[in-house]
Design a protein that fits this description.
The complex is a heterodimer of chains A (329) and B (176). With 329 residues, chain A is of the alpha+beta class. Chain A is built from eleven helices and twelve strands. In chain A, the strands form three sheets. A five-stranded antiparallel β-sheet of chain A has the order 4-5-8-6-7, with helices on one face. The chains are: A alpha+beta (329), B alpha+beta (176). Chains A and B meet through strand 1, helix 2 and helix 6 of A and strand 4, helix 4 and helix 5 of B.
Chain lengths: 329, 176
C-alpha cells in the first residue's frame, strides 16, 4: 500500500472542502472497498479523508419517505422496524449481501459507490482494463466472465455493479442527496449511474468534490408487497449470479403497480421498465410473469461466459414475481 | 518495533506518514505512533502482541480477524487503526474473564468446534456477537449469520453445535 496522509473530517462542509482542495484525495467510510483496493494497489490516494465521524448516521422517517444518512451501516438500516414493515425488498437485499461483519462496517453511501468485483480490474498485473486505464482494452471480454454483466456493457467493458441494495433502491425510485463545495443537489438513483457501455471509467455522476449525504427512499403504498431473490453459487456470503427486486400492488387479481430491478446482470443496478410495462394492469398469473420476463434482457450483450445469465435472470424474475404475488402456478 | 506495512513496501513517496493513535483494547488504553497505513489487525498483533486475532486473507473475505468495535463484530483487516480511535475494541483475549474462558470458548472445546484452530478466534468473536444479535434461534439461522467466517478444516457442524449448545442453555455454563 502506498503511503497516505490521514485526515479526519469533523463536519460535512469541511469534508467537501478537503476534497475540493485535493483532486487526488479519497474519502474513507466503512473501508470495505476502499482499503481493499488500496491494499491491491488499484487505488493510491495520497490523502484519505476519514468521514466516519460526520453527523450522517441517522435514519429517520419523514412523512412517506425514509431518510437514510449516508453513513448508516447496512446492518443498521436492515434493523429498522419501518424497513421490515414497509420495505421488505430493501431488508432482504441488505441481509443477503456480504457478511454481518462487513455489513456492520459498510455504509449505505459506500454501498452505492462500491467498485466492481471484476477480477481483471482488481489485478494490477492485468494491463488491459478500460476502467483503470482508458483505451487499454478489456481482459474480461476474453477471460473468465461468469461474474460479469450483460446489460449496459460493450466489448470495451463488462464490469458488473455488484450491489444488491442498489438494485432494490433503483426499483423504488430512491433519491440521492449530494453536497458539493458550493451547492446541494438531488439526483434520482435511476439517473445516478453511468453504464460501462457509455463510459467504463466513469461510474456515476458524482463530481470529485461531492459527497453523498443521504439516500431518500419513498415508502411504497402500505398495500404493496415486495421481496428480493438472489441466485448464487453458494447459499450465503456470495455475490449474485442474478437477482430480482420486485414490488407489486395487487387489487382484485390485477397488478395495479409493479416495480422491478435486476441484479447480477448490469454494469449499473438495472431497472427493468419493460417488465413493469407488461405487468401493470395485467392479471396476476404466471403467464403474465413469463411475458414480463421475456420482455427483459432483450438488449443483453453476452460473451461465452455470460450467456447463461439471460435465461437465468428471466427465471429469477418469474420466481420472485410468483413469490411476491403468492402465485405458484 | 515491526510494522508489517512499512517493512513490506518500498515506497516511492519518501515521507512515511505517522500519527499518534490511542486505542482502547479490552479495557486498557494504549497510545501508539503508527504509520497511517497500519490496520487495526496489524496494530493488535504486531504492536500490542495480541496475536489471538488472526490474519487470514487480509482482504475481508475469511473472518479470521473478527473483533468487536463498540460491541459490534467487524473485520480488523479492513479497519485502519486510526479509525478505531475512541472506540471500545474487544479481542479474543478480552473474552476470558476472572472465572475463566467465556461460555462460547468452553463450548467450542467441548464440541470440538475446530481442527487446526486458525479461524477459531474469529469464529468465537463472531459467535458471541451472533448471540447478542439474537440470531442463534436455529441451526439454519446460525449457519446464515456465521457465514462470514470460513473454516478450511470444515469444522462447521461442530461449530454450529457449540453455538447451539450455548444459545439453548446447554453445556456447563450457559451464562453470557
Amino acid at each position: 500500500m502506498r503511503t497516505f496522509d490521514y485526515v479526519r473530517a469533523t463536519d460535512t462542509q469541511e469534508a467537501v472542502r478537503l476534497l475540493a482542495d485535493d483532486p487526488a484525495a479519497s474519502c474513507l467510510a466503512g473501508g470495505t472497498t476502499q482499503l481493499d483496493l488500496m491494499k491491491d494497489g488499484i487505488l493510491e490516494p495520497p490523502r484519505l479523508i476519514d468521514i466516519t465521524r460526520l453527523p450522517l448516521h441517522g435514519i429517520e422517517r419523514r412523512g412517506e419517505s425514509l431518510h437514510v444518512g449516508a453513513l448508516a451501516t447496512m446492518e443498521e438500516l436492515a434493523a429498522e422496524p419501518i424497513v421490515a414493515e414497509r420495505l421488505p425488498v430493501v431488508r432482504e437485499s441488505l441481509l443477503l449481501g456480504a457478511s454481518v461483519q462487513l455489513r456492520n462496517m459498510a455504509t449505505i453511501g459506500g454501498n452505492l459507490l462500491q467498485r466492481t468485483r471484476c477480477r481483471y480490474f482488481r489485478d494490477p498485473g492485468v494491463a488491459e482494463c478500460n476502467k483503470r486505464s482508458p483505451g487499454s482494452g478489456c481482459a474480461a471480454v476474453m477471460g473468465a466472465a461468469r461474474m460479469h454483466a450483460v446489460l449496459g456493457v460493450s466489448e470495451r467493458c463488462i464490469a458488473l455493479h455488484a450491489s444488491d441494495l442498489a438494485v432494490a433502491l433503483v426499483s423504488l425510485d430512491a433519491l440521492v442527496h449530494i453536497q458539493g463545495p458550493t451547492q446541494r443537489r438531488t439526483v434520482p438513483l435511476t439517473e445516478f449511474y453511468i453504464t460501462a457501455a457509455e463510459s467504463p471509467e466513469h461510474e456515476n455522476v458524482l463530481d470529485h468534490a461531492e459527497l453523498i449525504t443521504e439516500v431518500e427512499i419513498p415508502l411504497p403504498p402500505p398495500t404493496a408487497r415486495s421481496g428480493y431473490l438472489k441466485v448464487r453459487d453458494r447459499v450465503s456470503y456470495e455475490f449474485a449470479l442474478t437477482s430480482a427486486a420486485v414490488l407489486l400492488v395487487i387489487d382484485g387479481g390485477t397488478i395495479r403497480q409493479a416495480r422491478v430491478g435486476l441484479g447480477g446482470v448490469g454494469s449499473k443496478p438495472w431497472r427493468a421498465y419493460e417488465a413493469e410495462h407488461v405487468l401493470t394492469g395485467a392479471p396476476v398469473t404466471t403467464a403474465t410473469f413469463l411475458d414480463a420476463a421475456e420482455a427483459t434482457m432483450r438488449d443483453a450483450w453476452t460473451v461465452p461466459g455470460t450467456e447463461f445469465k439471460v435465461p437465468l435472470a428471466r427465471r429469477t424474475l418469474v420466481r420472485e414475481l410468483q413469490t411476491v404475488a403468492g402465485v405458484t402456478s | 518495533m515491526r510494522d508489517v506495512a512499512s517493512e513490506r513496501d518500498v515506497d516511492s513517496r519518501s515521507t512515511v506518514n505517522e500519527r499518534v493513535v490511542t486505542l482502547d483494547v479490552n479495557g486498557r488504553t494504549y497510545t501508539l505512533r503508527l504509520d497511517t497505513r497500519v490496520t487495526l489487525l496489524d496494530a493488535l498483533r504486531d504492536r500490542l502482541g495480541l496475536v489471538g486475532t488472526k490474519k487470514g486473507c487480509d482482504q475481508g473475505a475469511c473472518g479470521a480477524c473478527t473483533v468487536h468495535l463498540d460491541g459490534r463484530r467487524v473485520l480488523s483487516c479492513l479497519t485502519l487503526a486510526a479509525q478505531a480511535e475512541g472506540r471500545e475494541i474487544t479481542t479474543i483475549e478480552g473474552l476470558t474473564g476472572a472465572d475463566g474462558p467465556h461460555p462460547v470458548q468452553r463450548a467450542f472445546m467441548e464440541h470440538d468446534g475446530f481442527q487446526c484452530g486458525f479461524c477459531t478466534p474469529g469464529q468465537i468473536m463472531s459467535a458471541v456477537a451472533l448471540m447478542a444479535e439474537g440470531r442463534a434461534g436455529s441451526d439454519e439461522e446460525i449457519r446464515e449469520y456465521m457465514s462470514g467466517n470460513i473454516c478450511r478444516c470444515g469444522a462447521y457442524p461442530n461449530i454450529v453445535a457449540a453455538i447451539r449448545a450455548v444459545a439453548s442453555g446447554g453445556g456447563h455454563d450457559a451464562h453470557l
